[in-house]
Amino acid sequence: MNDKQLVALQAAKYAESGMLIGLGTGSTANYFIDELARLQRDEGLKITTVASSTISALKAQSLHLPIVALEHISSIDLYVDGADEISPELTLLKGRGSDLVKEKLLAKAATTFIVVADESKLVSHIGQNFVIPIEVIPFAWQLIKQSLEKIGAQGDLRPNAAKDGFWVTSHGSYVLDVKFENSLDAKTLNDFINNTPGVVEHGIFYDLTDAVLIASNGIVCERRA
Ligand code: 5RP
């Protein structure tokens, strides 16, 4: 069993019958979805799920997990998802796959948000290994880019797969992938980007995490916020 699978199985121990559970997106979240399906099939777990992306919804459906649409929920009991980066204060960077709008809605709506990852995701500061994805309303991208440049950002619109146009998210947004050369802290970045008109959402998940499960060489450790 690899480390991603190990943390996913550990997180599934938080699932209880009667819960509405948010399904994350990515390879670690996929192991969690697999385990929920196994618990439903083999151990009688009775849950309802809500997905953070089309790909996770399709996976849940194929495994016969009951699923509701995001627009029909007002809160959820548990959300389990991976992350691209995790800082010592448990701020996250997410959204490499550009599903961050639904991911952040579920993280905020959850009574308990548990992040599952292997130790490669631990960083000293957000933006250390990956660019910060910022979903923007298409006609606002130049104005937003300029605003961000004023506080030290460098970056551009994410290209599409064929590299002949721009990536468009499932909500019709463009994605600006930016890097900050200076050492602005996550709270400052989060506040600044939140206050920039035309931004739909961004990949810094500040003050949303309840617990992180990190696996390293077969051993899981839990950190609480
Ligand atoms: C998608 C995400 C993923 O959770 C993140 O990219 C981690 O993926 P993986 O579990 O495959 O390493 O934020 O938007």
Layout: helices, strands, pairs:
Elements: H1 3-12, E1 20-23, H2 27-43, E2 48-51, H3 54-62, E3 67-68, E4 76-81, E5 85-86, E6 92-93, H4 100-109, E7 110-118, E8 132-136, H5 141-150, E9 153-157, E10 174-180, H6 186-194, E11 199-202, E12 204-205, E13 211-216, E14 219-224
Parallel strand pairs: 1-2, 1-4, 2-3, 4-7, 7-13
Antiparallel strand pairs: 5-6, 6-12, 8-10, 8-11, 9-10, 13-14
Helix pairs in contact: 1-2
Bound molecules: ribulose-5-phosphate (5RP).
Ribulose-5-phosphate binds near residues 25, 27 and 103.
In short:
With 225 residues, the chain is α/β, with parallel strands linked by helices. The protein has helices spanning 3-12, 27-43, 54-62, 100-109, 141-150, 186-194, and strands at 20-23, 48-51, 67-68, 76-81, 85-86, 92-93, 110-118, 132-136, 153-157, 174-180, 199-202, 204-205, 211-216, 219-224.
What does this structure look like?
The chain is of the alpha/beta class. The chain has two domains: 138 residues, Rossmann fold (3-Layer(aba) Sandwich), CATH 3.40.50; 71 residues, Alpha-Beta Plaits (2-Layer Sandwich), CATH 3.30.70.260. The chain is built from six helices and 14 strands. It is globular and about 55 Å long. The two termini are 27 Å apart. The protein binds ribulose-5-phosphate (5RP). Ribulose-5-phosphate binds next to helix 2 and helix 4.
